[in-house]
Amino acid sequence: MGTIQLRNVKKQFEKDVVIENLNLDIEDGSFTVLVGPSGCGKSTTLRMITGLDDPTSGEIFIDGQKVNDLTPGKRDIAMVFQNYALYPTMTVRQNIEFGLENKKVPKEERARRVKEICEIVGLTDYLDRKPSKLSGGQRQRVALARAMVKQPKVFLMDEPLSNLDAKLRGQMRVELIGLHKKLGTTFVYVTHDQVEAMSMADTIVLMKDGYIVQQSSPRELYENPNCVYAAQFIGTPQMNILKDVLPEGKMVGFRPEKLSLKPVEEEHITIKASVTTKEMLGSEIIYSLESKYGSLMAKSEHEVDDDAKLELSVPFSSMYLFGSDEKRIALDEEAKALIRKAFA
Amino acid sequence: MKKNNRSVSERRDRMLGVATGLPAIILLCIFTVYPVFYLIYRSLFDGSLISPKKKFVGLDNYVEILSSETFHKVLMNTIIYTVLFVGLTMVLAIIIAVWLNGTRQKKLGNMVQACIFTPHVISMVSVSIVFLWLMEPDTGFFNMIITKLGLEKYPFLSNPKTAMISLVLVMVWKSVGYYVLLVMAALQTVPKSIYEAAELDNTSKFRTFFKITLPMISPTILFTCVVASIASFKIFDAVNVMTQGGPVDSTNTLVYYIYAYAFRLGKPGIACAAGVVLLVLVCIMTYVQFGVSKNKVHYQ
């Protein structure tokens, strides 16, 4: 079992309040990703769960037990660091075994576990090498093995893929998903990369300025963002938000991939726009467009001329309405009428 | 054509290298290489420093010192001094540096650091004179305190049994701050995340020190050991001011022996031979230290 609860947690570095009042529930066996821009408090949250940083106030529970007063080593957790933090003076085997030796696990048991883990992550041939003789990907695996061998209740990972090249990162992402499925342990993963968050998480915790903006599944976050910030954080290119079109500071938003270059059957509005630039990505094309409501982004499989004048269709079903406080509001008939009028 | 071009620029680079290196090489030759060879050459002759007459005696000077009991004692003294000084200094330097590096009382830390570094900037002769007074057996400050505490007077430099350790303690007091600084610089290069990983691995403080800290700073420790050993093989000024090698040769070390033969006893040939022995010993010691620690030292 590996549930995590944070209750009214506050974190202050001298006079700097990083987290004001955080409440977070992480389910047992979930793959939870804390995501947000740098400085949003996601790493601080993770470090408080590990015990490397203490909360200024509030309570932290792991598996129902309050852990505020437990040292990191006694919390039954394992962490993978951004720079791996392997012990440079030890071989791969010693790195992996070190935590077990501290726990006074008998020698045969240690050897068995190390062997088992190294077969899973593919390190068997490198056991007697030092980390400096390994590639970035292999070091990453050592860091993972070192965490796994302890059989913790919770795995915590602080941007573990950010030092890898793009190809390896993609590969490790798949491996981590597989690993999570296999182990069934709680994973808490910190990243600033929305693609990583979307592809791996079963729960995304989107953070900003020390508070949680939205906590939901990736699909829910994509389809039902609860504010402008959440809507624009997920998805590339980011969601088009048109300000100054609707009265009372209301805003209307739609994703670039939902902008149709061709007329659609369902209920929609039409926007006249001209192409300014075009990015060919292979399977699709990203257009920058200029309309009288402002600049827009569109993503489509259809190719049009470089300076084409287009009539774009936006179905109401793909439209999001936000209030002047940037919070999502319902798109009811009244609002639809307002939008129709504004875009007429 | 292209090949030719490259060789021209290569030649120019080489010329530039030689031109910029030459002054240093010339100075090195005049002040280091030549004296070493002259030392070896001169050790084969007899005769005083001032008279131009020199007599070739072959290896007689070496035979004389190597069969002399005083020289054996001097060698032994030098080795004992080196072992005690390097051992004590390194242990103290590491303990103090680890404490300074980890302490949260930054003000206290800075003060301690300033206090222990200060002796390093004072001249050796001044330090020696001050300690001569402090360690004076009858009227000295240390014995005043010792007797106030109701203990027996300690002879310090006046007794052959205690003179060496007293000398070592003065030298450790003077130099430890410098070595603390070197060790601290090394400690600060150890990434914080490694300590955090160790904390997550439930590592005790003791084990963290021996399994992580010490191996991580081993290159610096080796370097400081070598430098400190060479320096202590060459100890002279403290001996000259405080004990003149006495009592009964108990603090007579190699360089003081050389000095005494060259300038007091008027036998530069013997002094040169002893100098060659010193050179050979330092070379051997350095080689051995690097060799022994090859597998123990971790270079990043």
Describe this structure as you would to a colleague.
The complex is a heterodimer of chains A (344) and B (300). Chain A is of the alpha+beta class. In chain A, 28% of the residues lie in helices and 31% in strands. Chain A has a 6-stranded mixed beta sheet with strand order 6-7-8-3-9-10, sandwiched between helices. Chain A has a 4-stranded antiparallel beta sheet with strand order 2-1-4-5, covered by helices on one side. Chain A has a 4-stranded antiparallel beta sheet with strand order 11-12-17-18. In chain A, helix 2 crosses helix 3. Chain A is elongated. The mean pLDDT of chain A is 90. Chain B has a two-stranded antiparallel ribbon with strand order 1-2. Chain B contains 13 helices and 2 strands, in the order H-E-E-H-H-H-H-H-H-H-H-H-H-H-H. In chain B, helix 4 (106-121) crosses helix 7 (160-187). The model of chain B has no long low-confidence stretch (mean pLDDT 87). Helices cover 75% and strands 1% of the residues of chain B. The chains are: A alpha+beta (344), B mainly alpha (300). The interface between A and B is medium-sized, with 25 and 20 residues.
Spell out the blueprint of helices and strands.
The complex is a heterodimer of chains A (344) and B (300).
Chain A: E1 4-13, E2 16-26, E3 31-35, H1 42-50, E4 57-62, E5 65-66, E6 77-80, H2 92-102, H3 107-121, H4 136-148, E7 154-158, H5 166-183, E8 186-191, H6 194-200, E9 203-208, E10 211-216, H7 218-223, H8 228-233, E11 240-242, E12 251-254, E13 268-280, E14 285-291, E15 294-300, E16 309-315, E17 319-322, E18 328-329, H9 333-342
Parallel strand pairs in A: 3-8, 3-9, 6-7, 7-8
Antiparallel strand pairs in A: 1-2, 1-4, 4-5, 9-10, 11-12, 12-17, 13-14, 13-16, 14-15, 17-18
Helix pairs in contact in A: 2-3, 2-4, 3-4
Chain B: H1 2-42, E1 45-46, E2 55-56, H2 60-66, H3 69-102, H4 106-121, H5 124-134, H6 141-148, H7 160-187, H8 192-200, H9 205-216, H10 218-233, H11 237-242, H12 254-264, H13 268-292
Antiparallel strand pairs in B: 1-2
Helix pairs in contact in B: 1-13, 2-13, 3-7, 3-10, 4-7, 10-13, 12-13
